Amino acid sequence: MIIILKQITEKLFYFDFPGKVILYINSDRGILIDAGIDDRIGRMIYKELENIGVVPEVLIITHAHADHFGGAAQLKKYYPEIKIMASSLTRSVVENPEYEPFYLYGAEPLSDLKNKFLLGKAIQVDQLITPGEDLCFFGEKWQVLDLQGHTPGQIGLIAPDKIILTADTFFPEEVIEKYRLLYHFSLEGALKSLKQLKKLAMEGEYQNFIPGHGKPYAKPQNVIQKNLQAIHETVEIIQEIIKKPHTREEVVAHIIERYKINETVSQYFLTFSAVSAYLSYLESEEMLNIEVRDGQLIFISR
Question: Metallo-beta-lactamase domain spans which residues (predicted)?
Fold first, then answer.
C-alpha cells in the first residue's frame, strides 16, 4: 500500500487509507483522529510522521470499530506520551475489543468472528470526551459532535478552519451502490445524526465534510440524502417482507438474497446485527408486532 498524505487546509491532512486517518499539524506537533485497522497501518503512519518531522500529542478515536482504532496500540508504542481520547461508550469497546464480536454473536464468539476487522487490539483511553464539549489544542477550539448511530458513542468533530470530521455517519455513493445495506447499530441515532449533518451543510458555514471512508465533500447534502434514501429503502423492503410472519433469521436470509451479500460467517452476523437495528426501529415506530410462536420470535408488519 502506498501512503498518500493529502492536504485539505494549511494544517489539516488525511492518510488515504480505506479507513481515513486525519492529521492536524501545528509546527512539529500533531493531532491524529483515528488510527487505521492494525499494526501495519500504525507503522505506516509512524514512518510518514517521521518523514515530515511531526510528533502526535493526541489521538482521538471517533468510534469503536477496528478499522478506526486497530492501529492505536502500535502508535502508542512509538509515542508513549500520546494522549488517547474517546467517548465513554467507545472506551468500553476499545479497551475491551472482544465486546464487538460478543455483541454480534451474543455469546463467546465463533472463531470466524475473531478477525482483525471485528477484533482490534486493545488500547487504554486516557481522557473521556463528551458530545457538545469544546476541546482546545494548540490554542484552537475543536467542538465535539454527537454522531451516534453507526455505533454507540460515535463522535464527530468541528475542527479549526470550519472543517467537520463526520466519522462513519454517512458513506460515499460507491459504498451505497456496492453494499446497499448500510450498517448502523441504531437507526434512530443514525437518522438523527444524518439530519444534523445535513442541516450543518445547508447552513453553508463549513468548508469541508470529511467522512471516515471516501473523499471529502464541500457540499455533502446530496450524498447525505442518498444515505437517508438507502435507509428508508431498506425499511420499506423489510416492511414488505414481514407482511407475512417472519423470524429474524428469515428476514436476514431475504436481505442477503435481495442485496446479494457475500455469504461468509462475518458478513452474516454483520447483516444480522444491521437487520436487528431495522427491526428495533420499526418496533419503536409502532410499525410491527412481535410474538413468540412455537419457540420462535416472530415479526409482523402492522
Answer: 18-213
